[in-house]
Amino acid sequence: RKVLMASLHQRKDNVPIEDYPPKPAKAPGVSPYAFLQGAAIAVFKAAARPPPTRDLAVASLRTMLEAAVDIFGTSEQLCPTLIYAMHAAFFPLRPISCADGVAISLEALKSGNEVSPAGWNNSVKETLQTLQYAEICIRKLANATMNPSSMFDVSCAVELESSLALALKSSPAAHVKVLHSLSNRLAANEHWVEAAEASTAAGIIAMQAFSIAAPTLCVWFDHDVQSLRDSFFALPDGASPVPAVAGIRCGTEEISEAQILTHLSRAVDLFTKGGHLEAAIRVNETAQIAWETHRQFDSLSESHAMMAELFRRLDATSGVGDPKRYEWDITSKPPPESATFWRIRLLGDVWDKMQGLEWVYRESQDRTLGDMNKKIISQLSPYLPSGTRVTAMSTNAESVIEEGCAGVQITAVQRDLESINQAAIGGGVGGTGFTRCGRFMFDTPVLFTEDGEVSQGQGAVVASLRYQGRRRTIITVDGQFPSLLPRAPIIDTTVEEMNPCQSAIQMLEEQTIALLAAAHARRPHAELLQRLLQGSLAAGVNGGVPSLIHSFFRTELPSAVAYHGEAMREAEFLTPARAVEVSPETPTPSSRHSTPRLPMIHHKRGLSENAVPMGAGIPLDTPTSASYPTPSPSAKAPPPSPASVAKSVLITPISTTTLSPSTPAPPLSRSDSLGLVQALWKLYRACVKVFETHQKLEQAEHLERLFESAIQDLRVSIESVENDLEFEEATDEIASP
Question: pTM higher than 0.90 for the full model?
Fold first, then answer.
């Protein structure tokens, strides 16, 4: 017993550090610890078999535990060895992994016998609890991945494997092996960022163990390990405790510099595929420490060349003027990683225990609604009885499910930017922290009249802005993205309503941000600026600013405000080449006959080629996949085209039913009126800024005159509304007693 347990003792301060990995004993002998590890693996394999083999395994495990208790007073020093042995005995997973033989064996060990040391129950309690939890996780994972009804549910398997990784945390080698398997499972299903987080976590755990096992060989110091760990989210507090000496002697093949660099290199590749380029740079910087220490200039040159490519991609992405990045760029913070998010709901009695379950899925940036339909149905339909028809349900309509059918409701959602958490320090360029989010939202249209909400009919809908409101659904999930998990259950849902005026204000604010983003871009694009100005000043749908003003105010616009919109419409989607074809005219009051039009009402959504109507719950400002180029490890990502960004910032009209012209509109409060005027002034100032930027690009002179005149008309229109509001207020004051 003393010989076998000797290697479990803590290292003494004055004793020289032994070689790592430990040298094997001369043949035909075997070192005590290697013998103990091999014996433990054999015992767990035997424990899974039926009696009498299981009885012999229980006796052997009891002997090991008694020896540890006899020498140390507790079995905790033996726990890392047993945890590693349990993992090694059952992986790769096989049908025997689904059996409960090990659970029965561990239960039998809880009570001692006549020769057990005093205080047996207390001495082995924590060790047996750790082993039991690990065994349950292994059995659940085996059942989930081998059962025909759940074997295609990748998200479920990922959740169970993530739990197993935590259960094995006392053995760094076993923990690393499970994280590596988890990374492979995630990458196989194109969850690139989650797979990269798992691979990074494996590298961190191996790095931490290597620094303890071989402090003279490890090139990474404690602060390197902690800094990398703080930059990412896969290892929360308590997920990877500092290992004991006994723990790092298990599975030594997993704890080495070469293995650490393998995990980090894989993480760089996966982060790059997932478009999280700053994370890839951060991990690559950690790997460079090893090459710098060993003066491996060939590896360093390749590493720096790759980083230069990543920086070029970041520059191409950040210099375009994407409204989704604007607020992050002006504060010099890394924006959230590119992704699409989807709310999934299961409806109908056919789902049985799964009925009513809701999740938010995080998917790659190029995922479409059609992709999600196929994916969710393929993963979850095996849970249903054979032959059950699965129906996609609309978010905006009443959920009426036919008898015997299973309903799936898939809704694109977006991050609630106000709830995004950013670490104080982290892995972004310049040391800024990466972000996480646990709240999401989506908007659906609501039509209001003086009598309240209008029920929505089928087919196309035409309604004035005066009737078009929004219902915003805010979702809170259990956890935050990104993490190791590609989905999270929804724990809370709240609904907020915006009346038509508030909805119009929201559209104006969104367009204002789009204008400012383009104006402040590092490399402004003339075509993008022209598209945005045209969209803001002469949109061809719903009448633009005049329509908005006539919808909410009783203002008669001055006759001078009649900007010649024919020329603006003829110059649709202006480019330098197309603009030359438009003959310049000097604007005169008599030739003007329309005012500039707003863009928010004039946009084809680019989220998916399987376009979903607004009524189905697509958020009002979801970006297109073109907003962020998807990097490839072997191909340089070009910057997004100005045209694609211009399309991604306009807003889909809310139209759901036809209202009679005589339908009374809902009342308009003074505070809403003032808010709408303020939003119009913000739009005006943003247009001025875009126009100033456009002037610096030396475009055709007649375009400059065209845009300048339209911006002046916009100012006159807003001033007219303001004057009317001031007159109404003065009249009300005179009329009041």
Answer: no
